Each structure stands twice: as C-alpha cells, then as structure tokens.
Amino acid sequence: MSDIIGYILIIVGILFDIFGCIGLVRFPDVYNRLQASTKCVTLGTILLLVGVAVISGLGATSAKAIICAVFILITSPTAAHAIAKGAYASGVKLWENSVVDKYAEESKK
Amino acid sequence: MRRLIYFVLAFIIWMLLTWQLDAQVIIAGLIVSVIVALLFHEILPKEYRVFISPVRMFWALVYVPVFFYYMIKANFDVVYRALHPKMPIKPGIVKIKTILKTESGITALANSITLTPGTLTVDLTDDGDPASRETFLYVHWINVKSDDVEQATEFIARRFEWFLKRIFE
Fold first, then answer.
1. CB atoms near residue B4 (< 10 Å)
2. ipTM of the complex
3. Residues B93 and A101 sit within 8 Å (Cβ to Cβ)
4. How many CB atoms lie within 10 A of CB B85?
5. Exposed end of chain A (fewer CB within 10 Å): N or C?
C-alpha cells in the first residue's frame, strides 16, 4: 500500500517538474521563468522526496529525504530571490508587455 | 541561551542524518555541534524564541498546512499559465508594505510570497524613516491586479502576515 502511495507521489512530482520546465521554456523573460521554475520545481522535488520517504518507511533513508525536503523548501525561494535581484541589478529588462515596474520608478528617485 | 538552542538543533539534525546510536557517532556529533553553535551563533537568526515557545510552535504547525495549500494552488496556477496556448500573463513589479518587524519574520514572508500564487520577491527596502520602520517589498507579480501599494499588500501579504506575526513577533 505504501509503495503505491509513494509511486503516485513520485509520478505527480515528476509531472510538476515537467510542467515547470515547459513554463521555463515558454515564458518570455527571466522573472516569469523564475516564477515557473521556483514553484513547480520546489513542489515537484519535495513530492519526489516525500514519495521516497513513504516507500522506504521509517529509517535512515526517509529521515534524510525529509531533511532534504525541508532544506529545499528554505533555500529554493532564497536562491530565486538572489537570482531575480542579481538579474535586475545587471540590467535585465522586464518583458515589453509588462504593465508596471515600481522598482525602476523608485530607484530613479 | 541562543547557543544552547542552536547546539541542540544542530545535534538533532546530525542524529537524524546519521540515524544510528553509536558511541563514536554521538561523540563526533556533540563535538561538531558545539563548534557550530559557538562559531556561528552570530549569523544564525536572532529570533530564537520560536524554538522554545509552545504558542509560537503551535502557530508554526498551523501555518504548515496553510502554506502547503497556497503552494499547491500556486503550482496549478503556473501550470495553467504555462500550458495555456495564449499564455495569459500580465507581469509587473509591484511594491507592497509589511507590518512585520523582525528579520526572521520578513524572511519567512518573502519566501512564502515567492512560493505562492504568481508572485516572486525581488528586493526589500525600508523607507528610511526610523520612527515608523516600515519595510517595503518589491514583488514580481505574474498577473498584476492592482499597482496600488495598499491593495497589492491586501492581495499578496495579508494572508501570511496574520500567521507570521504570531510566530515571529
């Protein structure tokens, strides 16, 4: 039973990873791409790790998997934040159809 | 006090990672945890109360399912926008303000915003006025509904601030 649940979690995680990658290819600029990659890849990878933990049962493997999931949850948005800020600082423009850019307006003042 | 808490945390993580009750492993873990707690307690978060206060712990536990609900919602949102042939996005960077004051609280808010529907924290700044000490966050929003500071805050940050205030402040 726990095998089946684990495999379902792994399959759903892989699906989210794939959709995140499709978003990464399709979205127009670096910020939108970060949105897709951060959200989908974080949840997809966490589901993968939880699936591994469910299959292997209580033990060394599942403890490591859960700790990895927690660290991914903390580090992934932080990394995205750093990349976005770095991209903005090095002059990467927003997509031409973007509606508002408060950041540029504020930093000009 | 802070050193003690970080020592215990480091030791618990060590024991979970090694997963064996061996004298060698425990002694090595104790030594490493002491070194980590003594050397790095200054760069670790200053709001250690969240680890010892039961009330804060309770709210942190309540926050986990709420957070995962928004995270899963965010994923379906991104999948919808990525697979839709016309790609219904309307991106932009908006400014929001937060009532949170502590470093850990603002970090948790920024990370929560990044992982939830359509938003990504780009930068944060204070308004330079030491009396009010308000912090502003610049958020990249994939589907801008309002570029007004107050309204954007209402859409993006309110649902988390209520919890994070109880956990970190």
1. 12
2. 0.76
3. yes
4. 6
5. C
What is the distance between the alpha carbons of residues A63 and B152, in angstroms, rounded to a whole number? Answer: 39
The single residue listed with the structure tokens 């966490």 is A46
Q: Which residue has the higher pLDDT, B104 or B129?
A: B104
Whether pLDDT at A108 is above 60: no
> Which residues of B lie closer than 8 Å to A, measured between beta carbons?
13, 16-20, 71-72, 74-75, 78-79, 81-83, 87, 89-95, 110-111, 114-115, 118-123, 125, 138, 140, 142, 144, 147
| Domain total of chain A | 1
Q: How many beta carbons lie within 10 A of that of residue B129, not counting itself?
A: 8
Domain containing residue A37: 2-108
Distance CA B100, CA B165 (A): 7
Phi-psi region of B143 (alpha: psi -120 to 50; beta: other; left: phi over 0): beta
Rounded Cα distance, B146 and A102, in Å: 12
For residue A14, the model assigns a pLDDT of 92
Out of B95, B114, B144, the one facing A38 most closely (by C-beta) is: B114
Q: Which of B71, B72, B118 is closest, CB to CB, to A35?
A: B118
**pLDDT over 50 at A109, yes or no:** no
pLDDT band at A10 (very low <50, low <70, confident <90, very high): very high
